[in-house]
Every structure is written in structure tokens, then in C-alpha cells.
Amino acid sequence: MCDRVVTVWLEGQGLRMRIVVDLNRCQGYAQCAFLAPDVFEMHGEEALLYDPAFTEAHREQVRRAAAACPVQAILVEADEARVTPVGA
Amino acid sequence: MTPGTLLQQITDYANRANPYPLYAELRKTPVARQDDGSYLVGGYYEISSLLHDPRISSDQRNLVARDGGGLQAEEEAGLPPSMIRTDPPEHDRLRRMAMRPFGPPHTPRRVHEMGGELHRIVSGLIDGFQGKDHVDIVDDFSYPFPVTVICRLLGVPREDESRFHVWADAMVGAADPSPSADLQERQRAGTRARTELGRYLAGLAEEHRRSPGDDLLSALATDHGPDGQMSMVELASTSVLLLIAGHETTVNLITNGMLTLLRYPEHLERLVKEPEVAVPMVEELLRYEPPVHLALPRVALADIEVKGTVIPRGSTVWLGLASANRDPRRFDDPDRFDPDRRDNQHLSFLGGIHNCFGSPLARLEAQIALTELARRLANPRLVEDPPPYRPNPLLRGPRHLAVAFDGVQG
Amino acid sequence: MAVSVGEVVQAFRRDGRIVVVGASLAGLRAAEALRTGGFSGSLTLVGDEPDLPYDRPPLSKQVLLGRARADATTLPQRNSVNAQWRLGTAATGLDLAAKRLRLADGEEIDYDRLLIATGVRARPWFNAAEAALDGVFTVRTSEDAARLERRLSARPSRVLVVGAGFTGSEIASACRERGLEVTVAERGAAPLVGALGGVVGAVAADLQRQHGVDLRTGVMVTALEGDSGGRLERAHLSDGTSLDVEVAVIALGATRNTEWLAGSGLAAGPRGIACDAGCRAFDVQGIVTDDVFVAGDVARSPHPLFGYQFLSLEHWGNAVEQAGVAAHNMINVGPDRRAHLWVPTFWSSQFGVNIKSVGVPNMGDEIVITQGSLAERRFVAVYGFQGRIVAAVTFDQAKWLDFYREQIEVRAPFPPDYATVDRQPGGMRPVPAGFQDPSLPSHGATVTLTGHDPNERRVQFTPARA
Ligand SMILES: Cc1cc2nc3c(=O)[nH]c(=O)nc-3n(C[C@H](O)[C@H](O)[C@H](O)COP(=O)(O)OP(=O)(O)OC[C@H]3O[C@@H](n4cnc5c(N)ncnc54)[C@H](O)[C@@H]3O)c2cc1C
Ligand code: HEM
Ligand code: SF4
């Protein structure tokens, strides 16, 4: 089972990196949408939409965005934190 | 030292080079009543909560006792306050309209796409250092760079710099609350300069309306969004604000940045080797040496209790951003410059509704400027430390920063 | 030989066995917190979904808009979680006395401490045959969202959304943004009325209608009808009308995943698993256990600020916070333990509006608009109960919300009696909040919250103020 999971995951995600925004913290300052417009987008004045999986090409943008967020709401997966599920 | 005179000491020019001990003193009294009746707040948590407090107004017209009736009349004859000095709903409407041509949601890619141009301007300025063995980082680099950027963004001819420079100086002078004898005169001059600058920019906008370009003045003069169109006076006051806020702050960030990196050369070397460190480094610079030390004065609309002290309705409230950024309750080892700091939620661009409008641009400018200076200057070093500072205690930064070097790399 | 409490804790952190059931948001965040908190013993995560923990809020937003892939909302990890992952395997039983978990594949796992984070699932359409029609959907899992997104891409002639809570409203919003015809059928008087009351619900109704939703309130869908090929073609409503629809999305709330605990002796049932403020599960006798913890959507726990009422919060932020508290308490004892004192907070975004809430709005019986205006759909609404502020909801005014959270924490008086910026005429007087069935707590709370750091967050008892 888990072997299948790992394979599917690797194929599906490829070199993608992941983000999640804590939208309770987010106050719609739009810094991320300015600095990484390919990944973050304001939907109206204050609501944020983002792509939770981004590719290497947008890595620099995302780093800038995450650093600039005034409420530090953007969690970018640290590369070394990648899990490889192991199991029976 | 009594806490009641802290504001006075902070604004005292003698303390400009190192106000940080005063801030440490200030944080012992989270909300310090000043002898002039205003309240000075220096703690991180207290400030960040006041930034989200709707009982705090940015509109000076809410002051209970306003001194200088003459000033008031003059002010009202001139330009109405811009977004930075108004409250919602007025503030929100002005900001939404100004944001339309500048950023998301309407123009999301503008700042991102300015990267290439910022690089070209920076490269051009550093190319100009060829054949010299020292420069003044302020006059030769960190002033002309953001001025060029904001001029292009707004659609203001760069050649007019000598004209608006005088007005800008007068306005910055008026924003200096130091209780010197000429305060009223400075404020009067500032108001006049603001009106003049507004008239000049409105004139430009009128020209742009007839033949619009890809700049903000053209957009603001022609745009019809959901909030309608900006009136001519709104356009004038908004563009004055953008022009001034767009460079008088960034100059400090870049200069403070260079000063700090030259004081801690290991970080300068690191920036050369790992240019990507510029992103967290600029955040740490913003925290450690913020370009704006005190936010514009606020007014309490109600009695507000903060940490057991009541700020009475109608009082002036000063928020010490630079002090908050060094609050040990919030930041570990706050007096250490540490670009690897992970938890770095500084208040240098404020927070709440008046959070800096131009911060994404300012960040990119500083990241590019410092990376390129670090990369291209061979063996840069400080000539004078501390450098001479600008008089203004709110917009704190060096007036000159002499840096010597052994050459310029390509 | 006397062994100190400290030594027992250290030994447990080193050699203990922790099992987490439910490998989603709460499960993952708890696992991370266990590791960062110093737990180096054996850690197993059991999840019945085959996927690594993924984020659900995008499923009714970005994913249905086609701007993010349903299978790519995998949650980033804060730190590497060194654990045994038993994904695609459900837990089917629990033996409390033997401290043993039974899995669907027949295997059994022994634990010293167990965390239950099995969340909820979408409440299915009540008629199983109708629910099985091609074209009837629910949205809870990434698979659900992928299927619905594919169907929306095929541009159905009309989508019926059954239920106008947050999820239903967000789905309707995504459909409209894609230019699809949408009917929303809601039993209550307005969308979001159960969570936010009638005053704010009326604004939500305007918002939907202005965006072209065919909103029908005060009606129920009574039957779904398929064609001979088993494809949905029509829906019947309680007002006697019927509608031709190709897609129906059932958004009638959720059911807690507790069936697997039947007979285990835990206080687990359709309303969730009851636990104390430290996340320890109660057994059926109402006695708190000390080795079984609960977090996330499946939990029901008392909140000191809200009259110690047991709150079930199906919110992202609650799952994160409660998981952190549970993990902390699993590897600490006595006074080092923490209470889950987080003030409930959530967001929703729909029709381009950012809706945020803090506190417990449906505990309020009155509401006052302190800032902005309902007509412009930019406002702060404050909810009061027995003279205290218990909640605030903002539409596109999120930057003020922290202030109101602090007001709730210090139990500030309602209605607020101070001047604020943007206070508009008509916003002064409190009016009934418009909940159909306000759930009134039996006694007013007498506590306030203090402290910024989780370690220093404390409940402070204060004499009841008049
Ligand atoms: C479409 C959608 C939109 C949402 N939008 C928002 C929003 O905008 N704002 C907000 O605050 N919240 C939102 N939420 C709610 C938020 O996603 C949940 O609060 C959160 O997912 C709860 O996390 P959890 O880990 O407690 O439960 P869940 O995410 O439900 O995870 C429980 C996990 O346990 C598994 N499980 C169940 N039974 C067993 C068993 N017997 N054995 C093994 N595994 C089992 C489940 O399959 C699941 O993987 C939304 C939810 C959905 C579905
Ligand atoms: C490092 C550079 C900068 C810093 C540190 C900075 C800092 C600040 C601060 C602290 C405020 C809040 C002022 C207050 O309310 O008291 C502010 C507001 C503002 N800034 Fe900046 N700023 C910088 C650059 C810029 C740039 C480049 C622009 C324009 C392009 C800009 C435009 C504005 C505007 C328009 C406001 C008013 C916003 C409002 O009231 O809503 N700033 N800035
Ligand atoms: S920068 Fe931060 S606060 Fe602003 S929109 Fe992005 S995530 Fe939200």
C-alpha cells in the first residue's frame, strides 16, 4: 500500500514545493500577491487565493513573498522536511 | 531620567546617532505620558494592538486642543489630507483608488515586473563610481535610486528633481516635531510646500490626461473604477504622498543597510557569496534599523486603557516603531543583527490599515541595491562612523555616508 | 526506589509509543509538535485516506475554480516528522484497557498514548438511492473535489447547491465565477444564518443574488430524480416546484467519524468525542482519561471564555491549535500542561469577499455594526450576549479583527460604548442578531484571558461584572 502511496505522490508532485497560508492570521496585506503574482492572487480586496503547490521556477518569488508577509502567515515547506512515508 | 521627557530626548538631535538606549528606557514604561500631554508607546505588543484599534485615528482634525489656529486656516486653504492622515471610510476609498494602477487585485504584476528596471538603474549608478575611490552613498546612490524609481512610476520628469527636492525638504522639515523655536514657521513652510508640490503634480496629471502613458499619474487621472474617479485635489494629495513616501524612506533603508553591513563585514561577505540572503537580510535591516522610527502622530477617539494606563480621549499618541522592533519580550536578543532570524515580524511598515502602501517596491529596491553594492564594490569601508544624521527624528537615517573602496567590479 | 515525575516524563519521551488516528490537518500538526516538543519514541500515524495529509479549505475555493489541482493541496510540513505512516488503513476498534488499536487489515497496534483526530465527513443525502445518482456530489475529500471539478469543467446546464452554509456558499461562488447557472436551496431564511445570524445572513443573501445565484430560502429539497440511465435530471423542492439540474452538490454539514469507537467506552457519539480543555477524552462515565487525547473537528471541548460550554468547532485554526495543545499535553504532566484557550477563529472567502469571524457568533443574541456599512458589504459586526462581547464578524475588514479578539478575551461590555473610526449612522444601536435558535449557556462567563505567549496564556477569574 504505502509503496504505491510514495510512487503516486512523487509522480503527482514531481519537484513541486508546498505552501499553506494560515488564513486566520492573514489580514490581506497582499505583499505575497505583489511579490509572487504567479502563486498568490487577491480575489477582491482582501481574500487571498494561492496555489498550494508551486514549482522550482517560482521558488524565488515564493521566498520573497513568505519573508514579506507582515503577519508571517505563509508556511513554505523546508526542503529537508520532506517526508517519505514509511510503513508496513 | 523621567519618562515624561523621553519624546523630547528622542527628538533631540544629539541622540540621533544612537537612540536605542532611550528606547530601552521607554520600554520600562509601556505607555509614557509626556510633559506636553501626548502619550508615547514603545512596547511591541502595545503598539501592535493599537495598530488594530479602531479608537485610534490618523486624522489630526480629531485633536481636542489644536494649537496654532493660523496654521489650521492655512492648512485648510491648501490640500486636504491624504490617505495617511485620514480615517476610514475616506482612507479606504482613497487607498483603493490609488492601489488600482499599482497593485493587486487590479494590477497585480506591476511591482514584480519592475525588477529589471530597478536593476538597470542600480547598475547605472554604480557604473558612475568607476574611477573614484570613495563616494557618498546617500547623494550618489541611495537618494537618486528611489527618486528615479518613483519618478518613473508616477510619470514625473526626472529633470524636475531640483524643483521638488526643495518642496520635499520643507515637508520633511515640517514633519519634525522637535519643539524648536521655529516649529510653527517650519510647519507653515511645509504646508506651503505641500500645496506647491500638489499644484505641480496636478498640472502634470492634467498633461497626462491628454496623452496618457503607462504611469500612475496617467492612470489616476483617467481611471474610472468602482469608486469612481479621483477628484483633482485627491489626485494631487495622493501623488504628493506617493512621491515623498516613495523616496524619503527608502533612502534610509538602503543607507542604513550599507552602514550596518560595513559595520558587520561578515554579513557583507555573505551577501556576496549568497545573494539570496538579501531577502531575509532586508527584513532584518528593517527591524534593526528601521527607516521610520516613529509613526505619524495618532489621536485617541476614546479613553483607551493600555497596560493600566488610560490614554484620554483627544490625546496625541506616538508609536515608537523602532523601539517595538527591539522589544526583548518579542524578539530574542533584539540588539543583535541576525539575518537568519526566523521569527521576524517587525513593525517597520506598520500594520493595520495604514500599513505601507509601497512596501513591496521598497523591499525589492533594497534587496537589489544592497546585493549589487556588495557584489561590485571592491573592499568597501566606512570613512566615518557614526556618520552625520539627517535632522528628522521620524525619518531617521544618515545625511551622508562616505564609503571608500578599491575599485568597481563589472 | 522513588522515581521522580521528571524521570517518568523523560523516559516516556524517549521510549514511549504514540499512535495518532486520522492523518489530516490535526494529526499532522500534532505529530510535528510531538517531535519538536522532544518526543523521540515511536510514532505511528494511521489514516484511512491514501494521501499524505492535505489541506481541505482550497477544495471548495481554488480547486473548484480550476486554479489549483485537487491532488496538490498536500500540507507542507513544519519539520520532518519521523513516523510510521499507515495510510489507506482505517482504525476499526479500540481496546482502552489493553491500550490497543485495531486496524481494518486486522493488525493491532499497542500504544501508551493515543490521539484521535478522525475529523468529520460530509453528511450524505438522506436517500441512498438518490445519493447514488450520477451528478450528485459532496465535498470533503480531495477525490470529491477532483470529481466535482471535472464535472464543472464539462459545463453542466445548472448546478443545484443544497444548503447555504459556508461550504455550499463557496461552491456556489466558484460555479458563478466559472459562469455556470446555480440554484442554492436553503432551509433557513438566508445563507450562513446558522453560523452568523439573520442580520449578516441578509448581506450574504444580497451578495449571492447580486452575483447571479438563484437563491431560494425557506425551502428544502425533498427529492432528487434521475433518468433511466441513473443520471440526475431533476430536483423537487418543498414549495412544490421542481428544477432541471445536471449537478447537485449536497452541502448539509458533517457527521463525526466516531462509529469506529462504538463500544470502546469513550464518550464518543454523533456529536463528537468529549474532552477536557486539556484535550483528554472523557469516558462514557464522564471521567477523564489520561492516555487518550482528542483534537480537531471530531473534538468537543469546554471553553472557559464561553461559559465552559462544550464547543464543536469545524475550523481549520481550531484543528491546528488543539493539535498543538494535545501534543504538548501528551508529553508533559501536571502543571506543565496547557488548556486549549484559543478564541475560535475562522475565515471563508466567497464572491470575492473575505469573511472572518472571531469568538462564537451564534452565542450572541444582539448585534451592532461598529464599523463600515452593511450596504457596502464592508463592515465589522459585533455580537453581544448578557452585556458582553462574544464575537465579531468582518466582511473585507480583517485588519480590525485582532482588536475585537482582545475585546472578547477581556470580556468587554456590549454594546461597545466608545467612538471608533468609520462608525456610520445606524450602526449605533444593537439589534437582534437573528439566530433562529440561540443556544444560551446557562451561566455568564467569569473569566478573562491574559498573556501573549502560549506558555503564559492564563485564565483569570474575575468577579462577574454587572
Ligand atoms: C471543502 C472544505 C472547505 C473548508 N473551508 C474552510 C475554511 O474556509 N475555513 C476554515 O476554518 N475551515 C475550513 N474547512 C474545515 C477544515 O478543513 C477542517 O476544520 C480541518 O480539515 C479539520 O482537520 P481534522 O484533522 O480535525 O479533520 P479532517 O481533516 O476531517 O481529518 C480527519 C482524517 O481522519 C480520517 N479518518 C476518519 N476516520 C478514520 C479511521 N477510523 N481511521 C483512520 N482514519 C480515519 C479521515 O479520512 C481524515 O483523513 C473546510 C473543510 C472543507 C471540507
Ligand atoms: C523602506 C521604505 C519604506 C518604509 C520604511 C515605509 C514606511 C511606512 C510607514 C511606517 C507607513 C505608515 C505611516 C503612518 O501611518 O504613520 C507608511 C505608509 C505609507 N507608505 Fe511607506 N515606507 C517605505 C516606502 C514607501 C514607498 C516606496 C512608497 C510608495 C511607492 C510608500 C508609500 C506609502 C504610502 C502611500 C503610505 C500611506 C498608507 C496609508 O495611509 O494607508 N512607502 N510607510
Ligand atoms: S502577505 Fe500575508 S497577510 Fe498579506 S495577503 Fe499574503 S498571506 Fe495574507
UniProtKB/TrEMBL annotation, chain A:
It comes from the Bacteria. Ferredoxins are iron-sulfur proteins that transfer electrons in a wide variety of metabolic reactions. Keywords: 3Fe-4S, Electron transport, Iron, Iron-sulfur, Metal-binding, Transport. Its cofactor is [3Fe-4S] cluster. It comes from Kitasatospora aureofaciens (Streptomyces aureofaciens). The keyword Iron applies. One of its GO terms (molecular function) is 3 iron, 4 sulfur cluster binding. InterPro entries: 3Fe4S_ferredoxin (IPR001080), Fe-S_cluster_ET (IPR051269). The keyword Iron applies. This is Ferredoxin.
TrEMBL record, chain B:
Keywords: Heme, Iron, Metal-binding, Monooxygenase, Oxidoreductase. The keyword RNA-binding does not apply. Signal peptide: none annotated. The keyword Magnesium does not apply. Pfam families: p450. It comes from the Bacteria. GO terms for molecular function: heme binding; iron ion binding; monooxygenase activity; oxidoreductase activity, acting on paired donors, with incorporation or reduction of molecular oxygen. Residues 68-89 are annotated as: Disordered. Belongs to the cytochrome P450 family. This is Cytochrome. The lineage of its organism: Bacteria, Bacillati, Actinomycetota, Actinomycetes, Kitasatosporales.
TrEMBL record, chain C:
It comes from the Bacteria. GO terms for cellular component: cytoplasm. Its cofactor is FAD. GO terms for molecular function: oxidoreductase activity, acting on NAD(P)H. InterPro entries: FAD-oxidoreductase/Apoptosis, FAD/NAD-bd_sf, FAD/NAD-binding_dom, FAD/NAD-linked_Rdtase_dimer_sf, Reductase_C. Pfam families: Pyr_redox_2 (PF07992), Reductase_C (PF14759). Residues 346-417 form the Reductase C-terminal domain. Residues 425-454 are annotated as: Disordered. Keywords: FAD, Flavoprotein, Oxidoreductase. Residues 17-323 form the FAD/NAD(P)-binding domain. This is Ferredoxin reductase. It comes from Kitasatospora aureofaciens (Streptomyces aureofaciens).
